[in-house]
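Need a sequence for this fold. Nothing fancy.
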């Protein structure tokens, strides 16, 4: 079985990954962090993914991968991309597709606009949690014990 985490490097997505790591250790599950990255410079700037003068999607994915594996060393990492005109529902669609592709049984999501993944929870709740294929664990607090 697989636990999947919507991960964008924000405090809540990091907390979600820490919680997923605890679940993974207890149940010996596969853990996958998925990040949805824009291809557009303006959207990348809005999401806080620009490092330096220019946006480099591969470098941003590398930074997120490094951050995810620092938190959960055994986690796999998956990067997805969206174009400039993709709305929040497209982010949710990418996460839902990744959950299906990875055969996830549990999806962890930070709830307070974590990575533009949930705003409000109902927007992704209906898009990501709208399938009975997996359970959804909503993380609302960044205070997670290791």
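Here you go.
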């Amino acid at each position: 079985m697989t636990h999947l985490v919507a991960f964008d490097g924000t405090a809540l997505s990091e907390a979600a990954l820490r919680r997923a790591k605890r679940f993974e250790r207890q149940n010996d599950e596969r853990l996958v962090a998925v990040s949805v990255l824009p291809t557009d410079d303006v959207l990348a700037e809005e999401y806080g993914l620009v490092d330096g003068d220019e946006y480099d999607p591969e470098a941003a994915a590398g930074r997120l991968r490094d951050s995810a594996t620092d938190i959960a060393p055994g986690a796999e990492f998956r990067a997805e991309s969206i174009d400039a005109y993709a709305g929040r529902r497209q982010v949710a669609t990418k996460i839902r597709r990744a959950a299906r592709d990875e055969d996830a049984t549990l999806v962890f999501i930070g709830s307070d606009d974590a990575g533009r993944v949930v705003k409000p929870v109902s927007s992704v709740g209906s898009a990501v949690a709208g399938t009975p294929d997996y359970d959804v664990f909503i993380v609302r607090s960044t205070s997670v014990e290791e």
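For context: Strands lie at 2-6, 30-38, 76-82, 104-110, 135-139.
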